[in-house]
Design brief:
This protein has about 290 residues and is an alpha/beta fold. About 50% of the residues lie in helices and about 15% in strands. The protein has helices at about 1-15, 20-25, 25-35, 65-75, 90-100, 120-125, 140-150, 150-155, 160-180, 190-205, 240-245, 250-260, 270-280; strands spanning about 40-45, 60-65, 80, 110-115, 130-135, 210, 215-220, 225-230, 235. GO terms for molecular function: zinc ion binding.
Length: about 290
């Protein structure tokens, strides 16, 4: 069994290269990646350089590509998911680099989601003292796995440079395809958002409206619960509108009563124009290892 494993490793090394060789070319990969994506932030931490290890022993790497970063800053809500088990030192280092790369000068306006694993809570408290930190990542993680359909697991089995390239190329394609799809959108709202609005609009037909002021309404839903809806503040006491950024059934009932535009009641994050801004910043193609210096 041991002999078979050794033979397998030798064959794998002869085809893909060894683990040590992969880490040895990591500095060249980082240099090439940075040159092809000007404005990106890339930090390779490999201390303890010696005669044996020209660049030191690999410890960690931080990559923030300019395209995805600018797209995130131009249209996404400032919600960041943190996952994996790392030491407090690693998480602190990562969060400092992330804060500087994204220009987070007011952490209070950012929200971090995590499963509160080792080191995360302490690092967020240390580096993002006033940031909102929420403690459950299951649904975000499930959506991420569905998006990439298990490909992240495949990437983890690769050598370090292969893994980084595989993830980068998947994001590069995803950004371009979504940019292309944004041009075909006919509605001012995204399709999934429009489906939610349509469903809530049907439910809103049973809501009774009592106007209290120019922008304030008392509403009575089918559940016989009364709420106060304030159109000018995009708020309702049911909290659905406040939390999701999309009008609740009470707000849509008021909208039908006032003959307003549903787009005006939706957070800008769900508009076609915002979607186009997010995916208008590309990750640039990279030359193969033959051209690295």
């Amino acid at each position: 069994m041991v002999l078979c494993l050794r033979v397998k490793l030798k064959v794998t090394d002869s085809i893909r290269g060894s683990l040590a060789d992969s880490y040895a070319v990591l500095p060249q990969y980082c240099t090439t990646l940075l040159a092809s994506n000007l404005g990106s932030v890339l930090k390779l931490h490999a201390p303890l350089a010696s005669k044996e290890y020209t660049y030191g022993v690999f410890k960690r790497v931080f990559i923030c590509l300019v395209g995805p970063r600018d797209g995130f800053l131009n249209g996404c809500k400032k919600i960041i998911g943190l996952d994996e088990v790392e030491s407090r030192d690693n998480w602190t280092w990562f969060l400092v680099e992330l804060r500087d790369s994204l220009g987070i000068d007011d952490p209070h306006r950012s929200t971090f989601m995590s499963d509160r694993k080792k080191g995360i809570v302490e690092a967020v408290s240390c580096c993002m003292t006033s940031a909102n930190h929420r403690g459950y990542l299951r649904y975000l993680y499930s959506n991420f796995k569905k998006l990439f359909k298990g490909k992240i697991g495949e990437a983890r089995a690769m050598l370090i440079v292969e893994m980084l390239e595989d993830v980068r190329k998947r994001w590069m394609q995803k950004i371009y395809y979504r940019h292309k799809a944004s041009g075909a959108l006919k509605s001012d709202l995204l399709p999934k958002v429009q489906a939610i609005i349509d469903k809530r609009s049907r439910e809103a037909r049973s809501v009774r409206i009592f106007q209290s002021g120019q922008y304030v309404f008392q509403t009575l839903g089918g559940d016989l619960v009364e709420n106060v809806t304030k159109i000018d503040l995009m708020s309702c006491t049911c909290n659905v509108w406040d939390i999701s950024g999309l009008p609740c059934t009470h707000a849509l009932a008021v909208l039908s009563f006032t003959r307003g535009r549903v787009e005006d009641l939706c957070d800008k994050a769900f508009h076609k124009a915002t979607y186009e801004k997010v995916y208008s910043h590309f990750s640039h193609a990279l030359l193969g290892q033959k051209y690295w210096q």
